[in-house]
Design goal:
With about 120 residues, this protein is α+β, with helices and mostly antiparallel strands. About 20% of the residues lie in helices and about 20% in strands. Strands 1-2-3-5-4 form a five-stranded antiparallel β-sheet, covered by helices on one side. A hairpin with a 3-residue loop joins strand 1 and strand 2. The radius of gyration is 15 Å and the shape is globular. The relative contact order is 0.20.
Length: about 120
């Protein structure tokens, strides 16, 4: 069965423009079109391979999942988020996932500290 084409597939194919933050052979990161922090990008694997959401992960996805996490660290260093950042993965419709292509939100601030729980005002 063919996987559904998503907006992320179109961004990977360069059919839809994006502001690229990071790219290698396996992943692509680009600025979120609706940023929720001073820095907010979305990191995606270029090949879905059945990985439409984290709950669909299987043993065959270990390498790409590890690569995604290492890439989060590279992006945080590149964007000078050494004081801290937040990583978010929404899973499933009830978990707030809107695009069914696994993606990681990387959010950073160069000023205020993020609050907890998310959405709560942070500390200065």
């Amino acid at each position: 069965m063919a996987e559904e084409t998503t907006i992320f597939d179109k961004i990977i194919a360069k059919e839809i423009p994006s502001k690229i933050v990071y790219e290698d052979d396996l992943v692509l990161a680009f600025h979120d079109i609706n940023p929720q922090a001073q820095f907010h990008c979305v990191l995606i694997p270029k090949k879905k391979d059945g990985l439409s959401q984290l709950s669909k992960a299987e043993d065959k996805h270990k390498d790409i999942l590890g690569h995604l996490m290492v890439t989060v660290s590279k992006i945080a260093q590149q964007e000078k988020l050494e004081e801290g950042f937040r990583v978010v993965i929404n899973d499933g419709k009830k978990g707030g996932q809107e695009v069914f292509h696994l993606h990681i939100h990387i959010l950073g601030t160069k000023g205020d500290q993020f609050g907890w729980p998310p959405g709560t005002p942070g500390k200065k």
